[in-house]
Amino acid sequence: MRLWEWLAATALGALVVWWSGWSWWVLLVGVLIGVAVLGLGHGALRPYRESRRLKRLNALLERSDANAGARGEAERLLLQAYAVCRRVARSRPRRRVPALAHTCAMQAETMLRVAVRLIAFHRYDEAVFVTREAVALRHLGDDGARAEDLGRLFTAVGAGFYRAGRAADALAPEREAVSVHRDLVTSGHLAEPALADSLHSLAITMSSLDDREGAHAAYQEAVDLYRALAAHEAAEGELRRDLARTLRNLACHLERQGRADEAADALAEADLLDRA
Length: 276
Hints:
Layout: H1 3-20, H2 27-66, H3 71-91, H4 101-120, H5 124-140, H6 147-163, H7 167-187, H8 192-208, H9 212-230, H10 238-256, H11 260-275
């Protein structure tokens, strides 16, 4: 319960005591009654209130997209959606609530869609806030049915920040994309290419932030995944091209670290794949 709700509970309890003519020493009992009444109402109405906010958020996004040709109007509607995101953030539960798990997952997905659009309008600080809240909501939600969409959207947000020259802001959503895709691979619901793609993006960002060990580990895992997948693919297959591209980026990363021999080996393998 928020401050105004506690104050309302206290006022309700005091009125009960005053109207009933009881002694004031039982004020505490009246306050507890008020807290109980408002608390039950708060809990019962919360899923409904959060669902209404989600509908409002989606409606604003749709209207913003519909006005894409009028940039000013589209941005105005998008900022209204951002304001709704802030209200969702203020009421976000601090622990997992089963009755809200599905709504939290949907809110996380919608917030990421808002973040993608905020980046397109160069509203980077707002996008950082919304992305952070989407991460928190994802961990409070039941994202099993929406995990593929969440992984794709986290990747899109990270890519948007990176292209805007904000690699530090790209790090959190790209790590979350890797986490989502890894969970999907572990549960058998998604093929490995999506995980390899997200690892490759994370490695590029880490390398640009001079996290040498983290970037090397991400590059190597992506290469291992692509290599295993490409082994079962035709010579002109897309996964072989993805492997070659990742090997070339790994080679650049190794070259910057002064590991020329390893960089040469990676380039040689990439050249061999291109000629195949």
